[in-house]
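Re: How this chain folds, sequence and tokenised backbone to follow

Filed under: protein folding, tokenised backbone structure, sequence and structure records.

Contents: The amino acid chain and a row of whole-number tokens, matched residue for residue.

Body of memo: The sequence and its backbone structure tokens, given next.
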Amino acid sequence: MRIAIVTDFYYPSLGGITEHVQGQATELARRGHDVTVLTPRLAITPHTVDGHDVPARSFDIVHVGLAFPFYANGAETLLTISPSLPFALDRVYRRHGFDVVHVHNPFGALPITAIARSRAPAT
């Protein structure tokens, strides 16, 4: 099965969503699925205290859009923006022909656009 995982958060951004995406994509690829993580480039690379290394991966990464830090409810999050985001997603979707699109944080601009543009079922 060809699976897209859409997320605003992936390395070098650290946190729970990043770790979940890494684990989910790794396990799905181990089970024989063709996995691609769709994530933005970061406008500002976060500094880490421990020099955290990006783990090895057995799946593809495709960068769409550009993510900027955004603050809401006293917390920092990422907001992915790009006027060409819908068209970039269309190109990726056509090229990969995903069977399913899995979306993290479905209220961000990237996830909402990914759901709206997908012809495959989105979960």
